[in-house]
Structures are given as structure tokens and as C-alpha cells.
Amino acid sequence: MIVITAPTGNIGRHLLARLLESAPAAGERLRVIVRDPARLPDAAHGGRVEVVAGSHADAEVLDRAFEGADAVFWLVPPDASLPPHETYSGFTRPAVEALVTHGVGHVVCVSALGRGTPLADRAGLVTATLAMDDLIAGTGVAHRALAGASFFENLLEECDAIRDRGVFTDTVDPDRKAPFVAAADIAAAAERLLLDRSWAGTGSVPLLGPQDLSPCDLAHIMTEQLGRPVRYERQSLDELHTTLVGHGLNEEFVQGIVDMKRAKDEGLDAGVLRTPDTTCATGFAQWCADTLLPAVRA
Question: Which of 10, 75, 132, 205 is the Cys-Cys partner for 110 at CB 3.0 to 4.6 Å?
Fold first, then answer.
């Protein structure tokens, strides 16, 4: 039995679709935890997936979902109303208890790059994410943290600005090259680990796109793929802080975002060597054609 959390999100929906195809042949049953079962894809209905309705922050929900489970895919949805440590470790503590209670053997979770670098202890949301990994690993469960680079999907939040003004914003240097990764590639890595549970112990699995890209590179590729000029505008960290606080986000969470952005601009994601084992398939041009272009046109 494989339990999938956040099955309707950017990563979870890709993972669920993949496992609906591959799990039956591997003799695996699937169970999902979802707040709104109506949001599940049609393929998940008809008894193909066992559904536990509710939040995976709820101890009672987790107790039902983890009973008889062999493996869990764990993803924490960021909650901007809470400080970072409560968003990640606080959310995960009930799961840690349920993992132990039900003797779950393997956990695959969504994490971040940066572990082992000098910036890891002052990287805001990334630091909180790594502490969550340690919390899970401390149970003794076999654990793999999918250490993804920044997601291509973050640009979907910029669709209106790209469509209306041909602009996207961030806080990093225009020429700072860094790895990016597609959510679908994170899901593919999770699928492999969840189905082949011959691994043991704890560890991090770095996941990088095919090449490092700067904001200027992203703008150039978007211009080509979208057929319209797209340019990058750099926002200061102070401007970002003021904007997010103005939207009513928790101030400690906002500071966590700012500290993460600062660390990324200082090279947080640059510490992993790109090898065949760490390189994912989806390039940015392909992702733009498949995902960003339809979103901008919508």
C-alpha cells in the first residue's frame, strides 16, 4: 500500500497519474489523503484508489491513512499564515507519530537543495524544510528527500504579468545561473522510489533540470517559445518583503521567503554536480511549450 499526500497539487497529480498506470502491474494498492475528493481525476474513481478525506495535518486522518501502509509520499503545502518551522516541522509532527505507530517502512518526501552548504542554516524556508527532513529521518524509517531545485512551475504565478506586460520578476541577479526542475520530473523520481523499495537508511536525492539557467536565459527562452517579447525585472528583497507583508502573510514566513531568496542569489542551489543520476529529462523550452504557453493563452 502506497499513501500519497497532496494528490491534486503540482507534483501529486503527476505522481498519482503515473502510479495509476504502474502500481497495478507492481501489485501495489494506492491510497490518497485529500481534502476534496471531487478534485481527484476521473481515473482515480471507481475503486482504483482508496480515498481518505481530510487534511494530512490531522492526526486522526493520518491514523486511518497510514494503517497498513508500506510507503508514504509526503509533501507539505506551505502555509503563509504560520512561521516556517510550524509550516513544515509543525505540520509533520503528527505524521511522524503515525509513521512509528503503524510501522511504515519507507517515506519519500519533497525537499530542497542546499544541505551541507554554508548557506543551509540561513536559507529561510529551505532551512525549515531540511529540519522537517531530519524530523522524519529521526523515526528510523527508510527516508529519501527529493532535493529539487527551484520549480519551473513557480513561473505560473507570473502568467498575468507575462501575458499583459511581457514581464516576470524575481530577486536574483539577472545573470545568476541556477538549476531548475519540472514538477513532473519530481513525480517521476518519487514513483521510482515508491515502487522499488530496495533502498534503506536516509538520504537526499538531488534533482536538477538539464542545464543551469539565469533569469536572462529564462526570458530569452520564453520569448522564443511564447512568440512575444518577455523580459526580466529584478525586485529588491526589501520590496518583496513589503509586498508580501502587505498581502497579509505571516511576517516570519515572509522573512523565510526573503532569506531563501537571498541564499539562492548567493549560490545555495549551486553545490550539486550535474551527473546522469541527478539530471532530469524536462528542459525549460519543452516545459514552456507544454505548460506555460497554454497557461498564458488561457
Answer: 75
Which one-letter amino acid corresponds to residue 294? P
Cα 243 to Cα 65, 134, 235, 238, 251, distances in angstroms: 39, 32, 10, 9, 11
Residue 218 CB contacts under 8 Å (≥ 6 apart), including other chains? 155, 168, 232, 284
Q: State the pTM of this model.
A: 0.94
Q: Check residue 271 and give its pLDDT.
A: 81
Calpha distance 284→152 (Å, rounded): 7
Neighbour-count burial of 281, counting CB atoms closer than 10 A to its CB (0-12 exposed, 13-18 middle, 19+ buried): exposed
Summarize pLDDT for 125-177 with one digit per residue, the tens: 999 999 999 999 999 999 999 999 899 999 999 999 999 999 999 999 999 99
> Scanning the structure block, which residue is given the C-alpha cell 511564447?
226
Q: Quick one: which of 69, 17, 61, 7 has its CA closest to 38?
A: 7
Smallest CA-to-CA distance from 163 within 295, 288, 286, 287 is with 295
C-beta separation of 119 from 267 below 8 A: yes
